[in-house]
Design brief:
Layout (H helix, E strand, L loop, with lengths): L7 H16 L16 E2 L1 H6 L1 H4 L5 E3 L3 H4 L7 H7 L4 E5 L11 E4 H9 L7 E5 L2 H7 L19 H4 L9 H10 L3 E6 L15 E8 L2 E6 L30 E5 L4 E4 L4 E6 L4 E8 L15 H14 L27 H23 L7
Parallel strand pairs: 1-2
Antiparallel strand pairs: 2-10, 3-4, 3-5, 5-6, 6-12, 7-10, 7-12, 8-9, 8-11
Length: 369
């Protein structure tokens, strides 16, 4: 049998771990060296690179957003005019603490507060629903390498249909909002979202529109060495000595850059300028098989399991009563529960779409970092 070639990114990662262990015995306390390679590539390079097309590595596409998207000219005023009605998680005191709680405002209400000068930098997350997405999506198209950046415009209208055959717009909106599927992120210099990994197995991409942003990224396989309380830009090795052993990388994004990273990867963004504007979306059905998902090798199947777990908290078959509270009734702007029709009727059909695309794109399994 011909030996299977290891991905160059995996080889580099193994060498990085060896380098750490070589220095671990020195007098100086071990520190994180951020040796994970996060390549900067062109769209043409992505089309040719099978390791990156597997969806199992992080990378930055450098030549698409600035030259192909109208979003590259976005301003805060333009966004206010387009989506004044969208709800904002507004953090007047930054979001670097995992315990930070937002104020909920419409964007047209939050923006004037954001623009006021203050000693503590401010941060906003806009959760786009279907209405807001329809107003902005022409600015964020076309996608680079469509089979790799295979987003919901390619499948959601096919699997969320009413018996009449019409798209169930209410269910699509519910999916967007409850899964935090589409975000606008706006911050001042010095703001960051705390170090974390997402709760569902969807891979992510983020386009940097305005300002620069620094990122820390760590594969899911390093989770045993990581903690949400780590400040990766100023680590406290006394509290978190294991962080020095983790295989992680850091990269700076500039306007026009587009970052991709796989499902469940730890990430920590830090805004370097005022303002920064980024758009982030999620993808499912684009990753090859992985060995780090706790028994399920297909990321889209794990994503489906994650969603069914959420559904089970609210709905039980043959029981017409909803089992979970709707916090949006008490706090307007908060995410509502997942709809019953989404859970029981539409998600099984969507899973078929995700599975078919993943099989067509990858065919055989590949192992993640």
């Amino acid at each position: 049998r011909t030996p299977r070639r290891r991905s160059p990114f995996v080889v580099r990662s193994a060498l990085a771990a060896l380098c750490w262990s070589c220095e671990a015995g020195t007098a100086k306390a071990a520190e994180q060296r951020f040796l994970l390679d996060i390549p900067r590539i062109t769209t043409a390079e992505l089309e040719r690179n099978q390791s990156l097309r597997s969806g199992l590595h992080a990378y930055i596409v450098t030549d698409w957003v600035g030259s192909r998207w109208s979003a590259s000219s976005w301003t805060l005023e333009y966004l206010r005019q387009k989506i004044p009605f969208e709800w904002v998680d507004y953090y007047p005191n930054n979001m670097e603490d995992p315990g930070s709680k937002p104020y909920l405002y419409r964007f047209e209400e939050a923006l004037p507060q954001f623009l006021q000068k203050s000693k503590i930098p401010k941060y906003m997350q806009l959760r786009l629903g279907l209405r807001g997405w329809n107003r902005l999506k022409k600015d964020i198209n076309p996608k680079p390498v469509p089979e790799v950046f295979w987003d919901d415009d390619s499948w959601i209208g096919q699997c969320m249909k009413k018996p009449s055959g019409k798209v169930d717009r209410e269910a699509v909106d519910n999916f967007f909002v409850t899964q935090q599927w589409k975000f606008l992120l706006i911050g001042e210099k010095g703001t960051s979202m705390f170090f974390h990994k997402d709760g569902t197995a969807a891979s992510s991409w983020q386009a940097q529109i305005v300002g620069k942003k620094r990122w820390t990224l760590c594969p899911n396989s390093q989770s045993h060495l990581l903690d949400v309380n780590i400040n990766t830009f100023k680590p406290d090795y006394t509290r978190f000595p294991k962080f020095a052993k983790a295989l992680c990388g850091q990269v700076t994004m500039s306007p026009g850059d587009l970052l991709y990273y796989p499902a469940y990867w730890w990430h920590h963004p830090y805004n370097l300028e005022t303002p920064t504007i980024s758009y982030t979306g999620a993808l499912v059905g684009v990753e090859a098989d992985r060995m780090d998902l706790g028994g399920e090798q297909k990321p889209h199947a794990r994503f489906y399991q994650d969603l069914l777990g959420k559904c089970a908290k609210c709905w039980k078959k043959a029981d017409p009563k909803r089992l979970c509270d709707d916090i949006s009734e008490k706090w307007p702007g908060a995410a509502p529960p997942m709809m019953r029709s989404l859970c029981e009727d539409y998600l099984p059909e969507c899973f078929k779409k995700w599975d078919a695309h993943a099989r067509a794109l990858h065919g055989v399994a590949r192992q993640e970092l």
